[in-house]
Amino acid sequence: VKANVADFADELLKTANHITSPGKGILAMDESNATCGKRLESVGVENTEENRRRYRELLVSTPNLGEHIGGAILFEETLYQSTKDGKPFVDVLNGAGVLPGIKVDKGLRPMCNSNGESWCMGLDGLAERCDEYYKQGARFAKWRSVISIPDGPSRKAMVDCAYGLARYAAICQNSGLVPIVEPEILLDGEHDIDRTFEVASQTWAETFKFLEDQDVLLDRILLKPSMVGPGADCPKRNTADEVAAATLRMLNSRVPPAVPGIMFLSGGLSELDSTLYLNAMNQSPNPWHVSFSYARALQNTVLKTWSGDDAKVAEAQEILFNRTKDNGMAQLGKFDA
Ligand code: 13P
């Protein structure tokens, strides 16, 4: 008999609380095989299962990773992999106090009758997959849908994004996984910060409406928003304080205080900007834990430093630790550039 969400109510809360401990965030390392391959090839490393495993071993076995990281999001392949010495990654992470999470969406496909927008795939069979991931040790999950400002955003894209996220979130909670709700508003485009604000406000209103329709427990989810800033090609740039203020204004008007954590994506921001913007948002108290779930902004320099060389593992790990520390300090509003 399938468990009910009530069977997991305490555990979901415990998981969410652990990930949102003061000074902690999430290490996103759930790149699909294709995306991970692109990253590896950019540093001259062939995209093989073994090379993906070697790179992920470097990340998960970084000394003291759990000091500033409460959870790591894995791709399905990684959830079942082990270190060279045969220790499952799940055990390595748990040993460091880092909860294993899993990306459960099946990626994006072109949306029919649209101007280049996309659908997020993966609801079919999701409950069964979530049960398996839980057995394998996953305790939280991620589903990333995208909204493109220059390609739309059309009404149907927003509704589909919100509906998919809500169905996914309900399924996860019934399988004991805390869902990270991620409608990523892409950075691409020439639009200014006001336009991003407007689209983000609509997107989150729609998302919460559908979460409510599906009876998702709002105190047992995490959000993964994009920061509200100008499009990447907008000539008018904004300061860290302006981005932080617009982002918080949007969230305060849309997100109930019951939601425990807001774990931002870096979305192509530089390593320094993503830390500065987070730090700016934590200069005064927020109703939620405002933190990070970065992939590129934690990994870019780490990957370049490693470039496939076993002799560089320790140096790359030290860089990763320092990136997690800077962002952990930014979560506390105490980052000093
Ligand atoms: P970036 O921080 O590189 O945007 O990735 C975060 C993520 O996991 C997007 O889904």
How large is the count of helical segments?
12
What is the typical, i.e. mean, pLDDT?
Answer: 97
Terminal CA distance: 53 Å
Provide the gyration radius in Å.
Answer: 19 Å
- Identify the overall geometry: globular
Count of distinct strands:
10
Helix/strand order, N-terminal first: HEHHEHHEEEHEHEHEHEHEHH
Helical residue percent band: 40-55%
Structure overview:
The protein has 337 residues and is an alpha/beta fold. Helices cover 45% and strands 15% of the residues. It contains twelve helices and ten strands. It has helices at 9-19, 33-42, 49-60, 76-79, 89-95, 126-135, 155-174, 193-213, 240-254, 271-281, 296-306, 313-331; strands spanning 25-29, 69-74, 99-103, 108-110, 118-120, 140-147, 178-185, 222-223, 261-264, 289-294. An eight-stranded parallel beta barrel has the order 1-2-3-6-7-8-9-10, surrounded by seven helices. The chain has a two-stranded antiparallel ribbon with strand order 4-5. Helix 7 packs across helix 8 (193-213), helix 10 (271-281) packs antiparallel against helix 11 (296-306) and helix 10 packs parallel to helix 12 (313-331). The longest helix is centred in the middle third of the chain and has 21 residues, at 193-213. The radius of gyration is 19 Å and the shape is globular. The structure holds 1,3-dihydroxyacetonephosphate. The site of 1,3-dihydroxyacetonephosphate (13P) has 10 residues, from helix 11.
